[in-house]
Amino acid sequence: MIVGIDLGTTNSAVAVWRDGEAQLIPNALGDFLTPSAISIGEDDQVIVGLPARDRRETHPGRTATAFKRLMGTQQRTKLGRHLFDAEQLSALILGSLKADAETFLGEPVTEAVITVPAYFNDRQRKATRRAGELAGFNVRRLLNEPTAAALAYGLQDRGEKEPFLVFDLGGGTFDVSIVEIFDGIIEVRASAGDNRLGGEDFNEIVVDLARKELPADLLELNSPNIIELQRAAAERTRRALSENDSADFVITIGDRQEKVQITAAAFEAAAEPLVARLRDPVLRSLRDSGVMAETLSEIVLVGGATRMPIVRRAVTRMFGRFPDATINADHAIALGAAVQAGLLSRDEALDEVRLTDVCPFTLGVNNAVRDARGGMQTGIFSPIIERNTPIPASRVNYYHTISDNQQAIVFDIYQGEAREVKHNIKLGTMRIPVPPKPAGHVTVECRFSYDTSGLLEVDVTVPDTGLTYNLVIFDEDAKIANQQMEQRRAVLAQLKVHPRDDATNQAVLARAARCYESFIADRRELVGTWILEFEAALAAQDPRTIEHARKQITTALDHLEGERFL
Ligand code: AMP
């Protein structure tokens, strides 16, 4: 049996082709989505999925999320006393999905189709393939995510030259692709996007609206994870607003709980500027592919954030017709991978053409910018080559001195997508001496050149002195990664994965611990009592007692912090 896997940045999912249709496979908690999160327990056990994500706040030094962004790099993440690269972390997610599939199907599962973003380059694709192999899969094929979405919607059953537009708005990124079949080969004709636009940005809108109404002293309370609490409250409110005309923003900080009612109308008015940004990538993808909007056979919505009515209306307005959203937006890619798996097992697989090579990450330098109050904010990322730029590419930016008689400009070179450089990956540093002059009077030219082998060349020219400085940054060879396969497999083999039959209880305990840390006083005490009661039920080892206790604590926690979501 071949399974289809969506290995996502936020969530992953696995599906199979069975009885003539693609079917999703539930994990040990009964969910179809498994958060792409890994945590290492104090007992050195690997925790995967929802309980791992709940430990992100309580055990930040032992928990990793969003590691898909590091695929194809040598960057390692330290979890407890272990160091992992993105391939190994992905392998642990894949291994967990494999176990879910084996439990569901009742037989060993060794073959998989795994999806990757259309803009993944060769290195990132090879890394994904190796992650699959590390998890014990024979990776039959890597499939572009938009192609998978189009397959889930039946592209393969349409005639030739019926292009699909795949509109994918996820938690943090927005991708638009035009997918087409020609001569039995599927091609992603064009891909455009905005890697800084997703559900999280809409959460910020909700937080801003709520903060206007929240008592000022509440916001001054010194809660260590206030940002995360607001974000989680906003996420719940926004999801509720997808179904209702108004919803409560509920936040519990320490021993206080506050509620602010937010109407869909207010949210949508405030979200207009974000919605306006959806238009440009759509136009670019149409322009780049030479496809006319009227000839699109289907407009397909994927990514959880397309559930927002305001997004759906915007798409309908853009195209003058309704998009197709009959398949659950979070499931479409895994289901499409299962369609490809089904075709492969019948030896009828569709072939795919790859996009030309593109630069997978944004490359740039650190910069200082003037903030609203006239002060200088440092450590801000200034992109030079944007993600998705076809390579080889060469781009230039100009930078000025910021203080009088400044002796040098230091360029730290980064790869990544975050606004603050500290969240990106540092690749190197250059110190460029400049002649002392009043602030802003010296300008230097910084040129980045990036090629298909992953080689980045930085040239900085100081026109005042006529001097040029050069730095070449090599990508550590993927060969090393290949050579290390056995060693890395051995590292993973040593780790014990938490027993599957204990997954639900473990998830509840991780959540309760997170709540305990975020509350204080009476609420904290209450959660502490519930944890003790639940632990006592676990110690009794009677399944019925455990189930009863689990329901009780879950209901109580839902009541305290609102219902949970994936
Ligand atoms: P994905 O990256 O495709 O898993 O999408 C995750 C994003 O979808 C997150 O930002 C979620 O807030 C968003 N999302 C999921 N369900 C809903 C919903 N019912 N209403 C609004 N946004 C949602």
Outline of the structure:
By secondary structure, this protein is of the alpha+beta class.
Distance between the termini: 28 Å
Which geometry do the CA atoms define?
globular
CATH class bucket of the largest domain: Alpha Beta
CATH topology of the largest domain: Nucleotidyltransferase, domain 5
- The structural class is alpha+beta
As a whole number of angstroms, the C-alpha radius of gyration is 25 Å
Describe the structure.
This protein is of the alpha+beta class. The chain has four domains: 2-197 and 277-358, Nucleotidyltransferase, domain 5, CATH 3.30.420; 199-273, ATPase, substrate binding domain, subdomain 4 (Actin, Chain A, domain 4, Alpha-Beta Complex), CATH 3.90.640.10; 363-496, Substrate Binding Domain Of DNAk, Chain A, domain 1; 501-561. The chain is built from 16 helices and 27 strands. Strands 1, 2, 3, 4, 10 and 11 form a six-stranded mixed beta sheet that branches. A five-stranded mixed beta sheet has the order 17-12-13-14-18. It has a four-stranded mixed beta sheet with strand order 7-5-6-27, sandwiched between helices. Helix 1 runs parallel beside helix 14 (503-518) and helix 14 packs antiparallel against helix 15. The protein starts with a strand and ends in a 5-residue tail after the last helix. Bound molecules: adenosine monophosphate. Adenosine monophosphate (AMP) binds at residues 8, 10-11, 170-171, 198-200, 235, 238-239, 242, 303-305, 307-308, 330. Residues 8, 10-11, 170-171, 198-200, 235, 238-239, 242, 303-305, 307-308, 330 line the site of adenosine monophosphate.
